[in-house]
Amino acid sequence: MEATDIIKKVRQIEIKTRGLSNNIFAGEYHSAFKGRGMTFSEVREYQYGDDIRNIDWNVTARFNHPYIKIFEEERELTVMLMIDVSGSREFGTSYKFKKNVITEMAAVLAFSAIQNNDKIGVIFFSDRIEKFIPPKKGKKHILHIIRQLISYTPEHRQTNISEALKYLTNAIKKRCTTFIISDFIDDSFEDALKIANQKHDVVALKVYDKRETEIPGIGLIKLKDAESGEYYWADTSNVKVRDAYKKWWHETDKETKTLFSKCGVDNVSVRTDEDYVKALIALFKKRI
Q: Taking the alpha carbons of 86, 90, 93, 95 in that order, is the dihedral positive or negative?
């Protein structure tokens, strides 16, 4: 993609996603992802029922009357976006590929974060860590992230979610809110997810395409595994073949959702031809 095309695309994404963030997500994001600490705000006179542990003894001695310290929730968060850039994201049968939906969702979350005065960083991963953008604030930083979301070309095409989660756990020392955006076509990441969610607040956003859920009956077709590069022939006119695939997909999807529940990870699924805005708002409201 040429530099001028990238700039144009960045601008289009910025206009759309910043508008969504400002008009739709502001309240939900603020309420759903609360700060984890408390900061001193002011003192006021003691009232019946106040916790005596919050009495400010210096001010009390000065005015010869009990005063207590008032604390406010610390609003600033560190937000990490974990973006799956493996080969399977380049699939789509409607007007959007999975990678387009991933990019827009990530951009909306990024603008929501800076609007809330949060730091935001990104981890691009395949079967290894492809790129790490440390958490920062500011519009310039957000536009850099969007530019990378659009133009970054990964070196590898396979997926290892476990390695990405281990990297998150080790690299980000302070507790953060992490959105992992992937199709979750992988296995053996339960332990890493549990550990990551104990240290951080992990939220899973699954992106999939409707054609991944079942195969149409169109005869003998040649299929390519986007991650391994291998080709397979499938006789889709065979009802048993189609039914077996459909059963596999639904069982795998159910197993993934059960895993999220088991690990205490909030999650939502987004189909490429559906409105991701509704899905995100439903997720935010569930957390309030």
A: positive
Are the beta carbons of 131 and 152 closer than 8 angstroms?
yes
Return d(Cα 218, Cα 178) in angstroms, integer. 41
* ∠ Cα 129 146 280 (to 5°): 90
Helix (H), strand (E) at residue 58: helix 57-63
Instruction: Please state whether the predicted TM-score (pTM) of the whole model is above 0.90.
Output: no
Find the distance separating the first CA and the last CA of the chain, reported in whole Å. 41
Task: Convert the pLDDT of each residue in 8-27 to its tens digit.
Answer: 777 777 777 777 777 666 66
Residue 257 contacts residue 193 (beta carbons within 8 Å): no
Encoded amino acid at 237, one letter: S
Distances (CA, A) of 78 to 107, 173, 204, 266: 16, 11, 17, 18
At a CB cut-off of 8 Å and minimum separation 6, what does 182 contact? 82, 83, 84, 159, 161, 204, 205, 206, 207
- Residues facing residue 187 across a β-bridge: none
The C-alpha atoms of residue 192 and residue 130 are separated, in whole angstroms, by: 18
Conformation bin of residue 142: beta by default, left when phi > 0, alpha when psi is -120 to 50: alpha
Which residues, in sequence order, are bridge partners of residue 181?
A: 83, 205
